[in-house]
TrEMBL record:
Cross-referenced NCBIfam families: Phe4hydrox_mono (TIGR01267), PRK11913.1-2 (NF008877)
Family matches, as Gene3D superfamilies: Aromatic amino acid hydroxylase (1.10.800.10)
Family statement: Belongs to the biopterin-dependent aromatic amino acid hydroxylase family.
Biased composition annotated in UniProt, kind: Basic and acidic residues: 14-24
Pathway given in the UniProt record: Amino-acid degradation; L-phenylalanine degradation; acetoacetate and fumarate from L-phenylalanine: step 1/6
E.C. code: 1.14.16.1
Residues covered by region (Disordered): 4-24
Catalytic activity: (6R)-L-erythro-5,6,7,8-tetrahydrobiopterin + L-phenylalanine + O2 = (4aS,6R)-4a-hydroxy-L-erythro-5,6,7,8-tetrahydrobiopterin + L-tyrosine
Protein name as it appears in the record: Phenylalanine-4-hydroxylase
């Protein structure tokens, strides 16, 4: 049925920008490909060109290797075309959405191996910065790593964990894990890839400024990812991150999915949150 539930997305007082009257009850909508203008395709092309030039030495090797699976960079991809390749690779598919959707429907799609992709693109005057995710963030930032079988399984497990967290009133804690991994995660790659710090989080990979800053700037803190620490850490949505959590392998993420979070949520509720740029006694920064 057309006409989804009202939009109640957390972190902003602005009404979301997309047209939610187009959405079905699960918040998905058909990509209206004919509605894209020549200017929209050009915006995608220019964003793609700029961002892909910055990837070597900054983005994870897995991401760089999978990027061509999105198809031609000169125009916005058709979701069906991406899905032909993606479904064969990992059993995932992308589904159109009008923009940010509430947590439970979001988790529910992920649990079904359906990744919601916003179907509209920013205006040319928003080239550098946009306050809500658009198709460039969702597609360029997130979809390449859905071709990686380990990340593919982790994101599905995250969706399943999210549905449980919603029942336990623990979405906020779990969302911090998503933020500091899938959105803003760094990985230390092995020697065969040049052995350095690389970005795998979509919020970084879709931002020209943060891609450089996150892996090279002396300013932010970088510390090894640890589940409880990450779930206690507050985050900023309107600045570059002040702390990044670093993994050693994609498998390390998937291993977190087998942890029983219920007792951990209960324990963490007793502990104070940690500020976005706070270091705990005894913690040391990664070089
Ligand atoms: N909706 N379309 C969309 N994309 C997101 O990344 C997203 C969302 N709704 C909720 C949400 N993210 C966050 O709350 C994720 O954890 C938890
Ligand atoms: Fe995102």
């Amino acid at each position: 049925s057309m006409g989804a539930a009202p939009v109640v997305y957390g972190q902003s007082d602005r009404p979301p920008r997309g047209d939610y009257s187009r959405a079905h009850s699960d918040y998905t909508c058909t990509q209206d490909y004919a509605a894209y203008t020549a200017q929209d395709h050009d915006t995608y092309h220019r964003l793609y060109e700029r961002q892909s030039a910055l990837l070597p030495g900054r983005a994870s090797q897995e991401f760089i290797a999978a990027l061509p699976s999105l198809g031609a960079k000169e125009r916005i991809p058709r979701f069906e075309e991406v899905n032909e390749r993606l479904f064969k690779a990992t059993g995932w598919e992308i589904v159109g959405v009008p923009g940010l959707i509430p947590e439970v429907p979001f988790f529910s799609l992920l649990a079904q191996r359906k990744f919601p992709v916003t179907d509209w693109i920013r205006k040319p005057e928003e080239f550098e910065y946009i306050v809500e995710p658009d198709i460039f963030h969702d597609l360029f930032g997130h979809v390449p790593l859905l071709f990686n079988p380990v990340i593919a399984d982790f994101i599905q497990a995250y969706g399943q964990g999210g549905l449980k967290a919603a029942e336990l009133g623990a979405c906020e804690m779990l969302s911090r894990l998503y933020w500091y991994t899938i959105e803003f995660g760094l990985i230390r790659e092995g020697e065969k890839h040049g052995g350095g710090l690389r970005a795998y989080g979509a919020g970084i990979l879709s931002s020209a400024g943060e891609l450089e800053y996150s892996v090279r700037s002396p300013e932010p803190h970088r510390i090894p990812l640890e589940l409880a620490r990450t779930m206690r850490t507050l985050y900023k949505i309107d600045t570059y991150q002040q702390t990044y959590f670093v993994i050693d392998s994609m498998q390390q993420l998937l291993d977190l999915a087998s942890v029983d979070l219920k007792p951990l949520y209960e324990e963490l509720r007793q502990q104070p949150t940690i500020g976005a740029k706070e270091l705990l006694p005894g913690e040391t920064l990664l070089a």
